[in-house]
């Protein structure tokens, strides 16, 4: 067992694994939200910096599975199609990740919470965000997603808004999210190896969450194939809204 877990009581360990399982289920259903649920849920029972470290490897591996689910050629095509968004996002992700030790955690949680709540409400209302089409939209959304991802490990909501604005077909959107988030996760892991967030000890802790996260991903993907996607996406957006409100609560009462 990871030495870090020896400092947790049994209930905390169970809750940590349940959060990872639930995050995997939601990601399996709609293709995103794992980092948001992990950072929000884990930070309720463990320290914020450890929660950030904990989400890194589950996010990396589950996105790899998602990106390659329809084959390497399909993943390569998505990579080429959205290269502009990826390049801009990568630049901002690498830059903002180095700010993590310098920015108060309550400020980071507040910023992320407001963003998640706002985008969740926008998507639940059915209004299509008028960005994403053209070079300027790509730069704006790539910058927002990258900056947010570097600070908190969460870049799903801006990316989903971008793909929705482009009217991306459902199966392609699931694959594209895996490619985008997967590459972002690789960069995030590398960035936090230098920021001090990901150490040998925290990496082992993060690896311990892989099992429940992957099980959840499998369960969620089975549900996605059987149940109306639109209803579950709305349910997931409601979960994101609650997670965002919790992040704002943590920022307000920190």
Structure description:
The chain is mainly α and 254 residues long. The protein has one domain (3-253). 79% of the residues lie in helices and 0% in strands. The chain contains 12 helices and no strands. Helix 1 (10-30) runs parallel beside helix 11 (210-226), helix 3 (48-67) crosses helix 9 and helix 6 packs antiparallel against helix 12.
What topology emerges from the helices and strands here?
Blueprint: H1 10-30, H2 34-42, H3 48-67, H4 72-81, H5 83-97, H6 105-125, H7 135-152, H8 156-165, H9 170-195, H10 200-208, H11 210-226, H12 229-253
List its traits.
mainly alpha, 254 residues, single chain, globular
Radius of gyration: 17 Å
Secondary structure: helix percent = over 70%
Low-confidence stretches are none
Could you tell me the number of beta strands?
0
Terminal Cα separation, in Å? 31 Å
Written as H for each helix and E for each strand, in order along the chain, the element string is HHHHHHHHHHHH
* Strand residues, percent: under 5%
**Morphology call:** globular
Tally of separate helices: 12
Largest sheet at a glance?
none
Structural class determined from secondary elements: mainly alpha
Mean pLDDT: 85
Query: How many structural units, i.e. domains?
Result: 1
């Amino acid at each position: 067992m990871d030495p870090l877990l020896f400092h947790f009581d049994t209930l905390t360990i169970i809750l940590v694994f349940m959060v990872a399982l639930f995050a995997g289920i939601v990601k399996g259903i709609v293709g995103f939200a794992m980092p948001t649920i992990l950072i929000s849920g884990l930070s309720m029972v463990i320290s914020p910096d450890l929660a950030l470290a904990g989400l890194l490897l589950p996010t990396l591996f589950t996105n790899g599975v998602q990106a390659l689910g329809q084959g390497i050629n399909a993943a390569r095509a998505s990579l080429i199609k959205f290269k502009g968004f990826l390049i801009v996002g990568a630049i901002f992700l690498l830059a903002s990740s180095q700010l993590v030790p310098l920015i108060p955690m309550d400020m980071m949680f507040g910023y992320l919470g407001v963003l998640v709540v706002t985008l969740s409400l926008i998507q639940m209302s059915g209004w299509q965000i008028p960005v994403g089409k053209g070079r300027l939209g790509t730069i704006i959304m790539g910058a927002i997603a990258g900056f947010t991802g570097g600070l908190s490990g969460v870049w799903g909501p801006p990316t989903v808004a971008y793909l929705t604005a482009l009217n991306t077909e459902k199966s392609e959107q699931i694959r594209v999210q895996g490619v985008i988030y997967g590459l972002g996760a690789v960069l995030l892991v590398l960035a936090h190896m230098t920021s001090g967030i990901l150490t040998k000890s925290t990496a082992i802790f993060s690896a311990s969450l892989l099992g429940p996260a992957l099980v959840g991903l499998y369960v969620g993907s089975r549900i996605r194939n059987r149940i109306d996607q639109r209803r579950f996406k709305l349910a997931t957006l409601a979960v994101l809204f609650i997670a965002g409100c919790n992040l704002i609560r943590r920022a307000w009462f920190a």
